[in-house]
Amino acid sequence: MSIRILGIESSCDETAAAVVIDGREILSSVVASQIDIHGKYGGVVPELASREHLRRIVPVVREALEQANLSLRDVDAIAVTQGPGLVGSLLVGITFGKTLAESLGKPLVPVNHLEGHVHAVFLEAHKSAIAPALPAVCLIVSGGHTVLYEIQFKDGQSVDAGSLWSYRKIGQTRDDAAGEAYDKVSKLLGLGYPGGPILDRLAAAAGNVPAPVKFAATKMRGNTYDFSFSGLKTAVLYHLRENPDYLPEIQARESAIARGERQFDQLLPLCGAKTLGLVREFQNAVVRDLVERTLRAAEGIGVPTVLVSGGVAANRQLRASFEERALSAGLKVYFPSPALSTDNAAMIAAAAYPRFANKIFADISLNASASLPIE
User: Fold this and answer.
1) What is the pTM of this model?
2) How far, in Å, are 28, 52, 343, 358 from residue 114 at the CA level?
3) Domain range for 205
4) Beta bridge partners of 85
């Protein structure tokens, strides 16, 4: 019998709902973004995010059910993101999910947002009849997280959608997440929020323009699988301060964004060769660090598989570099599609399936956890 799980995701600034069958088949996936609301502030404003979740969660869930051609009574369980994330945002999804589960008499399944990102990789793999081998090293890289896990089957379980996994953290950022560094550098350059997509496209547009600066590789004491991006962000800041000729362009881009001109085609003409070269070198440094440390971890632990997920996993240069380097190292690397790399509820419903199969449920006392660890 197929198990249909309604997933609800509200950990940050996307209100999302999805229906997934048996942790593998996506019947629907709806995401309402708040980028236009938070863009003018240069980042997510928690109070505004919570209010938008309250406004959008009912129509988003309704649309997900309509796309799946199901009613609420047709689903077998309700899955909600318990954490990590913004507490106010999480509470909106949790409260709505608890209300649905209680009123319908359905099980309530709590899901860790980071585990959802891992399951996003497997959702895409299942569509192609591929089963990534475990154990594996997984890089979760986004605006709020840059962390490496070793993933294995728990308690001797085998390859099955209902199997539980165990997670061992082997590396993490010591300061800024990679996506956070993108956002901060984008703000410094007057390119708005979010920074990842626009910087990725500008880096590609830079081509072979001369590099105005070169960024050295980050050296880490202690755990060499850890990351650090604060120093890189600061290096960009100092370079801009030392070269005031960037300022007219920055001001022009800030004015364009204030007028609502946020599209790539509108901002590209306002970026000179020096700016494009700077963006390319910044991205080269971020991608180099993410790829080298992740592959070093996989080779050091001795696993054959690398998984990469999270919003920054949509970065085209990151994907290309991972695929090239993993191939030469004899490793297999897997990504979700760009649509499932960013926050969505399909990954939450998928991650809920093994918990449902193992009867790991919550009651109405479930609460949000801003820093929930994966267990």
Assistant:
1) 0.93
2) 21, 22, 10, 19
3) 178-303
4) none
Going by the DSSP 8-state scheme, the letter that residue 244 receives in this structure is G
Distance CA 322, CA 211 (A): 23
Q: Is residue 249 part of a domain?
A: yes
Structure tokens at 45: 């404003």
**Contact predicate 20/30, CB 8 Å:** no
For residues 128 and 234, state if they share a domain: no
User: Do 111 and 222 have their domain in common?
Assistant: no
- 149 pLDDT band, cuts 50/70/90, is very high
For residue 14, which of 31, 36, 39 has the smallest C-alpha distance? 31
**pLDDT value of residue 156:** 58
The DSSP call for residue 259 is T
Q: Residues 18, 62: contact at Cβ < 8 Å?
A: no
Longest Cα separation, the chain: 66
The residues pairing with 182 across neighbouring beta strands, listed in sequence order, are none
Summarize the confidence of residues 110-131 as an average pLDDT. 89
CATH number at residue 251: 3.30.420.40
Whether residue 168 is found in the same domain as residue 211: no
Structure tokens at 259: 């007028």
In angstroms, rounded to a whole number, what is the distance separating the alpha carbons of residues 196 and 243?
Answer: 24
Query: Is 321 part of a structural domain of the chain?
Result: no
Which residues does 79 contact at the CB level (< 8 Å), separation at least 6?
5, 6, 7, 8, 97, 108, 109, 110, 111, 348, 349, 351, 352, 355, 356
Task: Give the H/E segment covering residue 354.
Answer: helix 346-357
Any domain includes 33 = yes
Long-range CB pairs of 251-260 (<8 Å, 24+ gap) are 251/190, 252/190, 253/189, 253/190, 253/191, 253/192, 254/190, 257/39, 257/190, 257/191, 257/192
**Cis omega (within 30 of 0) for bond into 135:** yes
Work out how many domains the chain is built from and give that number: 2
Read off the pLDDT of each residue in 118-138 and give the average, rounded to a whole number.
Answer: 86
| Site of tokens 């946020």 | 262
Tens of pLDDT along 13-58? 899 999 999 999 999 999 998 877 777 777 788 888 899 999 999 9
Same domain, 84 and 193: no
- Residues 198 and 110 grouped into a single domain: no
- The answer to the question of residue 320 being in a domain is no
Peptide bond between residue 194 and the one before it cis (omega within 30 degrees of 0) = yes
104 and 167 fall within a common domain: yes
